[in-house]
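Recall the central idea of this unit: under ordinary conditions, the amino acid sequence of a chain determines the structure it adopts. In this exercise we apply that idea directly, starting from the sequence alone.
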Amino acid sequence: MTSSIFLTRVVLRNYRSIGSCDVRLGALTYLVGANGSGKSNFLDAMHLVRDALTGSLDIALNERGGLSEVRQRSSGHPKNFGIRLEFRLRDGQTGHYAFNVGALADRGYEVQNEECSVGGKGHGPHFEIERGRIKASSEAFFPAITSDRLALVSLSGLKAFRPVFDALTGMGFYNLNPKVMRDPQKPQDGRLLKPVGENIASVIGHLERTSPDSLALIQEYLQIVVPMIEGVERKQIGPLETLEFRQNMAGAKHPWRFTAQNMSDGTLRALGVLTALFQGNPDHAPTLIGIEEPETALHPAASRALRDALNRASQRTQIIVTSHSPDLMDDPDLDADTVRAVVSEGSETRIAPLDTSSKDAMKQHLFSAGELLRLNQLAPDPESLLAQQRQVSLFGEIEP
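Accordingly, the structure predicted from this sequence is:
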C-alpha cells in the first residue's frame, strides 16, 4: 500500500513562539503539550503556507495580525521567519519547499529567499529566488515574479512545479466551530472542508454525490460517538443549506429529523472532525489534515472511537493532531513514535520525540501515554532538543 505520508520533515525558524524546530512526521502524529505550549503555532506555520499559495502572502499574514504578529521576538527585536517543508509526492518523488520573509523599512515585507527542489538539485525541477530575482532554475521559461509574493503561485502554471503546488494547497487545517456549523450556510465548494467548518453542508452534499462510501464511514463513526444518531444529510433551505440529522426516539416508528440548529456542540464537533478525516475519496483525499484538539466537547467514552478513526484515516491521508487530553492518549497500544512532546521553555516552544524513559514505559505497557500525561511525565528527549539548537539551514540539501 502507498504511504500516506506527505510532509516528512518541518523546519521552522522564528515563527511565533517557535525560535527553531526540526520535526519529523509520520502518517499520524500527536502533538501533546500543555495549553499555551505552542502546538497550534506549529500547525499554523503549515497553514500559512497553504493560505499564501491559495490566496496571497499578504492576506495570509494580515489574517494573522500582520508580519509583526507572526515572526518571533527576542529581547523585543522581531526576527525574520522561515519555513522549510520536506515532502514526498504521491508518485514517490521527494523534495523540499522553503522560504523566509523579512521586514522592509517602510513596514512592508519581502520574500528574501524562496527555493523548491524535486528529486534533488540537478536531478529534477528546481528553482532558487533571492528578493524577487532568479538565481537558478531548471526551467527555460520563468514567469514574472515579485518579492512580495511566493513565486510558487506563478510557477504553478508550469508542469514541473504543479504537483508541488497541488500537494501543498491540498492540505487542510481545522479548529472546528459548532456555532458556525450550526447556522444555515451559503452553498460553497464542497471538495475541501474549510477551517472552522463553514462549508460542512456543502462537503456532506459533495460526498453524497461523489463518495457515498466515505459518507457511510463518517455516519458509522458518528453513530458510535452519538448512538442515537442514525444519519446525516445536506438539506436545502431556500438559497441556503444546512445539515439534517436522523435521530432515533423512544417509541417512534421512524427516526425523527432535526436540523443542525437543534444539535449539541459535541455532536456537531464530532461530525466536523469525522468529515475532516474522511472527506474526499481514497484516490483524491487531502494530502495532510491538521486538527486542533479533536476531543473537545466529546464525552471521554468517545475517545476510543476517535482514536480508531484517526488511525484509519491516516492510512490514506497524513494526520497531525494537537491534544492535551489524557483520555485521547489513554491507549496501551498507542505507538510512542507517533507522539511529539511540546513544551514551553522561557516562552519559547520546543518540540521533540519522547524521551527514552517515556518510550520504554509505553512500549513495555507499564504506562499509557495518557497515564504519563496525567503524571506530567510525558517529556521530550533532551538529546533531540539539544540537537535542534544547532540550527539546520532552511535552504539547499541538508542532512537527513
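The longest strand covers residues 94-103.
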